[in-house]
Amino acid sequence: MAALLGVVSIVVLLVCPTTIYCSNVTVSPFSSLPCSQPCGSNVNGTSIDQALGNINSGDYLRLLPGCHCVRTFSIVQDVIDVSLIGDGGGIVQITCAPGLGLVFLNVTRLSFQGLIITGCGLNGPNAVSLNTAINTMVDLFIQLAEDINIAMVIASCTDVVMDHVTITSTIGIGLVGVNVAGQSNFTNNVFSSNAGQNCVGIFKSTNASQSRNYTVGGGASLIYVDYVDRSNSSPVNLSIDNNTFSQNSYCGIETYVEIFYQFYQAFRGVNYTVGSGGGLSFNLAQQGYPLYINVQRSSFRNNSATFGSSASIYWYAGLQDTHINFSDCDFYKNGYQQFTQGSLGPLVQGGVLVLKDLVVPSRLWPGNLSHPNTLVFLRSKFTSNSGFLGSGILITSEYSVIPNLVDSIVLDSCQFEDNTATTGSALYISESKYNGLQAGLIVTIQNCTFVNNTINRSLVGAPSGVFATVQASLVNITIRDSSFLGNNGTAVGGLSSLIILEGDVRFHSNTALAGGALSLVSASIALVKRNSNISFANNTASISGGAIYGDYYYGQSNLGSSYDCYIQFDAIYLSCNVEYMCPDLTTFNITMTFSNNKATLGGSLYGSTLDSCPWATLIKNQLNLNGSILELVFDKGIIFQSGQSPNSSSVISTPVSTLVVENSSLPIYMPGQMFELNVRSSDRFNQKVPTIVTAQPLEAVVGDSGYWLTSVSDVGTKVYGQENDTVSITLYSVDSFVQSNSISVALTECQFGFYFNQTTRSDCLCRNAAVNSKVVCDSNLKVFNITYGQWYGPDPTNTGVVFQQCLSDYCLPRNITSLAITVRPQAIDAQCANNRAGLLCGACQEGYSAVFGSNQCMKCTDSTLGLLVLFAAAGIGIIAVISFLHISISEGYINGLLFYASVVSTYEIHITGHFSARKVFIPIYLLNLDIGIETCFYDGMTALDRAGLGLVFPAYLFILMILFIWLAGRSHQLSEWLAKSNFTPSKLVATLIVLSYNSITQSCIQIFGFVEVTVYQDDGSSYVIGPWATDPNVEYFSPVHAPLFVIAVVLVVIFVIPVPLLLILPSFTSHVVWGLKPLYDAFVCHYKDRYAFWLGSLYFQMLEVTSQYSDLAESVYFIVVVCAAYVVMFGVLVWHLILRFPKLLVLIPCKFVPKEVGPQADGPSYGTVGKHVQYRSDEELDASIDEPRLKVHKFSEYREPLLGGGSVRLEHEKLVSNI
Question: Kind of pairing, strands 1172-1176 and 1190-1192?
């Protein structure tokens, strides 16, 4: 009967070739509408739906070019040999009124050709009635909901042909096919721009709860389920050839919820609602008949969906004997590129979705299933797709494995390039099993290339763990004769999976965090088959495993097991302890080549020594080798071929196996204070390797975040708790869970600058007084950041804080790379330089002593007291040199040299900037009776002791001088010899005065010095104290300071001030203090008389300079000394100017001016040493002006006692200028 109907149809086509509509029943023809006119119910003329509503078997509907409008709902049902053909003379377009579409139910041999179907969308009650009609024939658990638009529905139709048909611009799904049976062919069709109305909007907003009418869409959705009567077991062959799926989208999140929650028993009774992948989707749930689907030479471009942007395959539990083949297909730029601003963008999966073992609602567990299912991708390209997981292909099976049914997925000669995802940028495969060794889905990749695929970890919700180009979880996957080149992310990552490598497999130039080529975690195994050559070249991992990363237990303890073999050969051998139980590996013809792979740890392999592998035991037994198997095979070239030495953590390494805290002493810190632990972490090759550590118990925190990388520095740790408590802490490695030895931390009271937090009762916080513009108190690290050149610390009574500029070079010099120094409250002296300590760094640290020659503090012993002998001998030597070699200040150059040395020693710190350059000035310091070298006399010498000892050596010299003069008076020979050498005691005394003057002056001024120190209180108040300036830890005029102060006052009164005062007043010194005339002459004998005052003025100036650059510079003492020095110098200068220029007296209303009268009667002279002074009248003075300008005076004569008694006449020829 069917054959007869076919013949009748052909005859009809031949007899009415010119009619618009031909049928075996004659009806009036209908015409087309202008495409610009909307399709509405008020359109006049004959409509296409008249023909569709009255169609019979064998009808051939030929549509003229133009637009044809479907205005009423009708179902073409229960007919045979029906065709809907567009006339070849132009575009034939079918549009629909709102809520309407094309529906074909139970039609045999249904044909479509040359049509454009646009703007159609069946929904509402018509969809409900259609759903009821379909369910009478098939077991359709997927609903055609009333709020979903569908342009065309083909249900329970056989031998469907669709050629050159375009379905576009559907606000929903373009085509839904249910049990399209027989031999059906879809060729040269286009499914374009079919999408939910708000798909773009929903990706750009957070409102995902709109009606499905606005979110569900897609190109085509094909559904296969069992028939109601189960009588049809005929094979189904569906061919989709040279079709294009572009710019279709499905953006609802309902499918996401329905898919994943259907895995749970409570949701099994909930029916699915029809939904589609972006381009093409299959819902496969049949058991009663074989199904063969061939998608070939088809293009999937720019589609998007929450899952399966280009294509999706929903593979329901109980499915059998289903075979899908994608060949020579092109998947390009599918994903969410169009919606980069959207909140749902990261949920989009860009390529092909294979969702396996979904639960069929109300279906009992299937019985005998003996025909496995297959899915093949052949010679297909996946390029520039993007998504959250598996941008090329996402395969996941979330239900139990069906016994005796092993399904397979094959990727053959495919190419994956430039795809992007958070993981599985090319391929993501996941199956819910115990591990990858169990029976289940078998995935094979052969002759494929994976090039330049990228892991994007910046996407919202990016998963943690392995980031791979091909990601396998609980799967058995075989990779054969394939290449992974230049991928950003691990090339192949396995999580509890079996990764089988076979043939020639290349991993070149891949980069990852861990495992550039292979990442094998959580009991994953790489199984290398016989006759294989696996090449690892130029792979890079920024952390570990440049080529292979293995973590058998994946961050969990090994539960007492030492087995961690993640590489096997040929088969999974559980034991090879007896040689005959395992084949000889040397006969397997396996080579694993490692070349120029790089990582911080384990450039070639990281994760295990592999000594637990059965084959390792076999090789050791066969070749009688000892040691680590990896080191042996790398060294011997057995299977593993590498040009690198294995004796380095940069080549092979493992996670941390030992973690040791090496601090030798018990840490003592405040609650919550950061301190450092010296931690050594080593791998199983005993190589020092870095690891991230954390601490137990909860009171212990490592670093600021609770974790610390051991290779960065010593481990920064802090412990919270009560004051004066002890806490035991343990560090452990995050990646291997190895624990360190326990260490006890003693918590002290809160130190200077901090107080105990009574709220938390576990931490110390900064005091209010611990905050200053140049001091930052860090409550987190419990440290002070102090600006260089400043001192911060407690006052002597420990009741307040002091913030003040450092004295001299007591504090650390400024670091050119930092503006501040970090100091812990327990080590406040860390801001001090040169082993100094205490207030303003004025004292020496315990065990250190003050030294001569610098401000440093050094280790000293009492054995240095032997230096006293050397200094005693030096004093005798100075007296001898002056006395016997006639080196005295009476020689003009000696006086100048000593004065120059005094000036340089005063200015030296300002010339060099610090005391470290003092060695250059040692000769100058010796001329000032200063040691000049860094030395001390005894252990515990303080700055106060040093100041006192600075007066001892000059006093010792004067004692030696007195003793020498006394001895000369007692020794006739010594006296005679000195007389012959024209040496007098005055020269010795004068020379010693000049030598010791600067030393005594500086010591006195140092003893007088004090510094004003401001002490700040917590309440904001402050007060000032004035300790000794050289060491502020010494209270001014305290019992230890007062004796030196008194001695210094006496020396200033009888020595420091009188010496320059007497020298600056020559007439007074020569006439009034006549007994000092020989001593005075010894000072000024090389000066002209009129300039004899100059030496005294120099010493007054030096006294002023010494005071200026001392600790007195800002005190009242300094003001008095400087003012007195300048008054005296100015007065003497005026006096001598009057003597030199008498006419200046006209400015002074005086009757008399000084007149010099000498002891000789040879006439007037001026300025001659030793003359008496009288006053002359103005007339006498005027008369004397006409006297000759120059005169040669007679020898002035006086007598000085000799050292041995008697006297000697001394003559001095003086050439003076006459006024």
Answer: unpaired
Residue 413 scores a pLDDT above 70: yes
3-state secondary structure of 842: coil
CA dihedral 941, 947, 951, 952 (to 10 degrees): 0
The CA angle 575-580-581, to the nearest 5 degrees, is 25
Instruction: Give a three-class secondary structure readout of 1139-1202.
Output: HHCHHHHHHCCCCCEEEEECCCCCCCCCCCCCCEEEEECHHHHHHHCCCCCEEECCCEEEEEEC
Give yes or no for residue 94 having a pLDDT over 80.
Answer: yes
As a three-state string, the secondary structure of 204-246 is CCCCCCCCHHHCCCEEEEEEECCECCCCCCCCEEEEEECCEEE
- DSSP states of 73-132: ---EES-EEEEEEE-TTS-EEEEE-TT--EEEES-EEEEEES-EEES--B-THHHHHHHH
Contact 280, 240 (CB under 8 A): yes
DSSP 171: S
Terminal Cα distance for the chain, rounded: 163
The backbone torsions φ and ψ at residue 1107, rounded to the nearest 5 degrees and listed phi first, read -70, -40
One-letter amino acid of 864? T
Distance CA 1192, CA 1206 (A): 30
Which of 288, 278, 282 is CA-nearest to residue 203? 278
Instruction: Categorize the per-residue pLDDT at 118 as very low, low, confident or very high, splitting at 50, 70 and 90.
Output: very high
The pLDDT of residue 325 = 97
Q: Is the pTM of this model over 0.90?
A: no
∠871-875-881 over CA atoms, to 5°? Answer: 135
Rounded to the nearest angstrom, the gap between the alpha carbon of residue 826 and the centroid of all alpha carbons in its chain is 29
Q: Which has the higher per-residue pLDDT, 1181 or 1194?
A: 1181
pLDDT at 374: 94
* Contact in structure between 10 and 17 (CB atoms under 8 Å): no
The two structure tokens encoding residue 622: 């066969």
Mean pLDDT of the chain: 76
What digits encode the pLDDT tens for the residues 195-224? 876 554 433 333 333 344 455 778 999 999
Q: Count other C-beta atoms under 10 Å from residue 1005's C-beta.
A: 25
Q: Which residue has the tokens 């001090």?
A: 832
4 burial via Cβ count (<10 Å: 0-12, 13-18, 19+):
exposed
Helical ranges in 913-984 per DSSP H: 922-927, 943-970, 972-980
- Ramachandran quadrant class, 980 (left: phi over 0; alpha: psi -120 to 50; beta: rest): alpha
Each residue's pLDDT tens digit, 299-356: 999 988 877 889 989 888 888 899 999 999 999 999 864 443 344 444 567 789 888 8
pLDDT-based confidence at 895, cuts 50/70/90? low
Q: Quickly list DSSP for 588-623.
A: S-EEEEEES-EEEE-SSEES---TTSHHHHHHHHHH
393-401 mean pLDDT: 75
Query: Using an 8 Å Cβ cutoff, are 248 and 338 in contact?
Result: no
User: CA 634 to CA 610: how far, in whole Å?
Assistant: 12
DSSP per-residue letters across 433-448 = SS-TTSSS-EEEEES-
Structural contact between residues 608 and 550, judged by C-beta atoms closer than 8 angstroms: yes
Angstrom distance (rounded) from CA 1193 to CA 1176: 21
pLDDT at residue 930 tops 70:
no
How far apart CA 164 and CA 112 sit, in angstroms, is: 8
- The phi, psi pair for 1133, rounded to 5°, reads -65, -40
150 contacts 173 by C-beta, under 8 angstroms? yes
Q: Are 471 and 505 in contact (CB under 8 A)?
A: no
Residue 448 near residue 469 (C-beta atoms within 8 A)? no
| Rounded Cα gap, residues 120 and 122, in angstroms | 7
